[in-house]
Design a protein that fits this description.
Layout lengths: L7 E2 L6 H18 L30 H23 L8 E3 L29 H4 L4 E3 L19 H9 L15 H5 L9 E6 L2 E7 L8 E8 L21 E11 L17 H18 L10 H4 L16 E2 L12
Antiparallel strand pairs: 1-8, 2-3, 4-5, 5-6, 6-7
Helix pairs in contact: 1-2
């Protein structure tokens, strides 16, 4: 769809990335021509399954369709960045590139890799499920080559962008995100978060605690996944479930020093390490305060929201429900 109009039905998944890239380029050119500030969000479906890269990228990598899809996304990001440069917009454009979850390890080599970190996509408390590399660029404000090892949250994007454009934050609700521009720009060297609460669906699985004093980041696991022995994959074979037989409720919670033990192999002893009760008490108090800040809302994962509603589905050219927009991708000079 483009706005409220269906432009292709059924749609060809393999052409989505280059078509989105073309739309992004046109949008930037129009914003430049109108001398208007802009917000451009490009949400790639790469490398989500099914892996169906555009024909020009198939067979181009050494890592099968997954690698081809990564290369396609890399090409697209390059086109967008080159467009900013061509239009003279690079120096004063804030660019934020990241992902929403770790690799889907249950899919094997078709689902990516999370390196040394345990777990993967769908595991809201595992480092491999939530720890995402992020690339940021804003030459006018952020020094090239800056490396930030502090943990932040994607919820930080909202207050950060609000600060950039001078927009006030809503005052009628709790805003969990923080403005991370001072951290990115080098004005401060610590995360604005003392705690990050890691959920799997509606269930709190783990809490990250970053004390202001000292140089250790702690992570408490209130819930752990019951992985297939010798792996960090779940028995379901698709995605780990957030509750039920695929998880274990830890009492007492498991505690890790993830600064010195990022692979979470060596839990702090609850019986013999004097740091354990001190750290866990701080985390539990933070959890109680956090819980009090939450507002009850409708569960978005209810079955009634997940089943198909055919009578609500759009259709072009009724009753055939087929249409096709002619798109010229030649201007993108695609070559895998």
């Amino acid at each position: 769809m483009r706005n409220d109009d269906i432009i292709e039905m059924p749609y060809n998944i393999s052409t989505i990335t280059p078509r989105m890239t073309l739309e992004a380029v046109k949008f930037l050119e129009e914003s430049k021509a109108g001398n208007e500030p802009f917000l451009l969000e490009v949400s790639y479906w790469n490398t989500h399954t099914a892996l169906l890269p555009y024909k020009e990228f198939r067979g181009k990598s050494r890592h099968g369709l997954y690698g081809d899809s990564v290369e396609e996304m890399d090409w697209s990001v390059g086109v967008v960045m080159a467009t900013l440069e061509r239009l003279g917009l690079t120096d004063n454009t804030f660019v934020y590139f990241t992902s929403d979850n770790g690799g889907h390890i249950e899919l094997g080599d078709k689902g990516g890799s999370n390196g040394i970190y345990k777990g993967g996509k769908g595991q809201g408390g595992s480092e491999g499920g939530i720890r995402m590399p992020t690339l940021v660029q804003w030459p006018r404000k952020i020094k090239s080559g800056t490396v930030v090892s502090e943990a932040t949250s994607q919820m930080d994007i909202f207050p950060t962008v609000a600060d950039i454009i001078g927009a006030p934050l809503p005052q009628d609700r709790v805003i969990d995100g923080r403005n991370i521009l001072p951290l990115l720009g080098g004005a401060v060297d610590t995360s604005p978060h003392d705690f990050l609460f890691h959920y799997c669906g509606e269930y709190l699985h783990a809490v990250r605690y970053m004390p202001r004093d000292g140089n250790v980041t702690w992570k408490a696991h209130f819930v752990s996944y019951n992985w297939v022995p010798g792996t960090t994959r779940c028995y379901s074979g698709r995605l780990c479930r957030c509750a039920g037989q695929e998880v274990t409720h830890n009492n007492p919670p498991l505690l890790y020093d993830i600064t010195n033990d990022p692979t979470e192999d060596r839990p702090i002893s609850a019986k013999s390490d004097p740091r354990y009760p001190e750290v866990i008490d701080v985390i539990k108090n933070a959890v109680e305060e956090h819980a009090e800040s939450l507002t009850e809302v409708e569960n978005q994962f209810m079955m009634s929201n997940l089943i198909a509603h055919p009578w609500l589905q759009e259709c072009c050219n009724f009753p055939y429900c087929q249409c096709q927009e002619n798109v010229d991708l030649s201007s993108l000079k695609i070559s895998g």
